[in-house]
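Page 37, continued from 36.
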């Protein structure tokens, strides 16, 4: 295991001395900062656990190719029976509310679109990959329940804002806390008391992480998703969902970041969606997030009701092991 207490930029062989890390830490640090080197070395050290699956790489290639076709995407998804079954299960769930059952991947594309199928496939594949990571500090079932609940809220908010391809916000919501799994697996011993004291309060956890590690789980998650090739709008949204704590309004939230921030906080305020295994808590919400989305907090009860109806079947489709 690497020693993260040393000068990691020097250790990484970048050459020369790294510039001093001054002031408030940036949400996505530049490539020469000590913190950037620290996060990169952490990801390098756990690369065997978090390498993107082959099928996800192939999906990226198809979507990035100017010659890509819906048929090519359907073939890739259909070649993985487990993936196609889960994707079809979600497509036929109350999340989409289709009047007729979808029985094939090709049919799913005509109903939810190429991008919709791509993002659903990405969500299912990524969740299955990260579900292999465990930590003595994290209740994995609670973690994934929070992630799926947040994903559904993010998609719901995106649809209300009429954002193009709302499923991409489902992906961001699903993976917004993925950095926690890496941090708490790698630093389990040194962070044990901190995690216990925080009792699942994410705001406190992020503050403690920055104090003790120099970065938080949101930043680690963003760096990982960047490596996985996710769009910049998504990995920056993941990286900034706790940014209000330490940026103090210096950097305005993007539309995507506001959605992920609200999805995380609103999920924590529900028993079934809380990151804390001790139950729901009054997770802080930055008032500017509602303003950025042009929505009113009066929609919260309606939003919770909609997500509640979709939650269990979505959870069972993505990660049955988290259905407890």
């Amino acid at each position: 295991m690497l020693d993260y207490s040393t000068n990691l930029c020097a250790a990484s062989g970048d050459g020369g001395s790294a510039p001093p890390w001054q002031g408030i830490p940036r949400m996505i640090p530049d490539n020469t900062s000590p913190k950037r080197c620290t996060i990169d070395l952490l990801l390098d050290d756990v690369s065997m656990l978090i390498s993107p699956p082959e099928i996800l790489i192939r999906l990226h290639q198809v979507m990035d190719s100017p010659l890509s076709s819906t048929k090519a995407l359907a073939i890739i998804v259909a070649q993985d029976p487990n993936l196609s079954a889960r994707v079809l299960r979600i497509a036929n769930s109350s999340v989409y509310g289709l009047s007729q059952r979808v029985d094939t991947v090709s049919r799913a594309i005509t109903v939810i679109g190429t991008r919709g199928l791509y993002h659903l496939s990405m969500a299912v594949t990524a969740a299955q990959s990260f579900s292999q990571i465990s930590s003595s500090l994290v209740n994995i079932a609670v973690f994934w329940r929070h992630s799926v609940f947040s994903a559904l809220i993010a998609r719901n908010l995106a649809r209300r804002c009429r954002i193009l391809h709302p499923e991409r916000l489902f992906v961001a919501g699903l993976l917004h806390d993925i950095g926690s799994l890496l941090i708490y697996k790698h630093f389990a011993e040194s962070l044990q008391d901190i995690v216990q004291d925080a009792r699942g309060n994410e705001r406190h956890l992020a503050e403690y992480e920055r104090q003790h590690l120099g970065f938080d789980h949101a930043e680690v998650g963003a760096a990982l998703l960047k490596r996985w090739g996710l769009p910049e709008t998504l990995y920056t949204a993941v990286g900034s969902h706790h940014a209000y704590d330490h940026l103090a309004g210096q950097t305005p939230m993007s539309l995507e970041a506001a959605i992920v921030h609200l999805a995380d906080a609103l999920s924590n305020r529900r028993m079934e969606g809380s990151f804390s295994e001790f139950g729901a808590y009054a997770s802080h919400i930055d008032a500017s997030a509602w303003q950025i989305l042009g929505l009113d907090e009066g929609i919260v009860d309606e939003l919770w009701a909609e997500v509640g109806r979709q939650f269990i079947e979505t959870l069972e489709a993505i990660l049955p092991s988290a259905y407890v």
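Residues 9 and 34 are 6 Å apart (CA to CA). Flag for discussion at group meeting. The chain has a mean pLDDT of 79.
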